[in-house]
Amino acid sequence: MAIFQAFEYARRIGAIKNAMADSQLDLLIVTSPPNMNYAVGYDAWSFYIPQAILLPLSGDPLWVGRAIDLECARHTTVLPEEALFGYDDSYLAKGRHGADYIAEIVRSAFPGARQIGVEMDAPFYTAQFHARLAAALPDRSLADADTLINWVRLVKSDAEINLMRQAGAI
């Protein structure tokens, strides 16, 4: 269950999309665990496996990750079932990578996305993750959008401030 109401996540996604528009991005691939949580509520310990929130400038976000983590995505995000995509463990075998599957979803769900932001300094966005995305999306431009959501997160909503006050009281 997501911490905040759906309208709070919608507000956040709107603010992220405004920042994406300012940066001329068609799609943002969110891989930082705190930023995935901020955007849609996703909260899991599977961050060591390639996973992402695909956040388009136009349209709704998708969660992509290991199929075994689908249940967690169902219970912690505000995303509907049709927005959840899980890859099987064959993507963890030698010669394959979860980023390959993420790129497949990018190509099929967002064919017009040409300028794609990625979180270049996110702890689990590895060099191999980036290389696999770049190889699988040769007709797209991958741009460093590492701090895009961080800047959005600086401005707190009333719901966030209220939760911070409750935590402070505890």
Q: Structural class, please?
A: alpha/beta
The count of helical stretches stands at 7
Please state roughly what percent of the residues sit in beta strands, choosing from under 5%, 5-15%, 15-25%, 25-35%, 35-45% or over 45%: 15-25%
Mean pLDDT value: 94
Number of strands: 6
Largest sheet geometry: 6 strands, mixed
Any overview of this molecule?
By secondary structure, this protein is α/β, with parallel strands linked by helices. The protein is built from 7 helices and 6 strands, in the order H-E-H-E-E-H-E-H-E-H-E-H-H. It has helices spanning 6-22, 33-40, 70-76, 98-109, 127-136, 148-153, 158-169, and strands at residues 27-30, 52-56, 62-66, 84-87, 115-118, 141-144. A 6-stranded mixed sheet has the order 4-3-2-1-5-6, sandwiched between helices. Strand 3 (62-66), helix 3 and strand 4 form a beta-alpha-beta unit. Helix 4 runs parallel beside helix 5 (127-136). The longest helix has 17 residues, at 6-22. The chain is globular. It starts with 5 loop residues before the first helix and ends with a helix.
Q: Key terms for this structure?
A:
six-stranded mixed beta sheet; globular; alpha/beta; 170 residues; 7 helices
Quick description:
This protein is an alpha/beta fold and 170 residues long. It has helices at residues 6-22, 33-40, 70-76, 98-109, 127-136, 148-153, 158-169; strands at 27-30, 52-56, 62-66, 84-87, 115-118, 141-144.
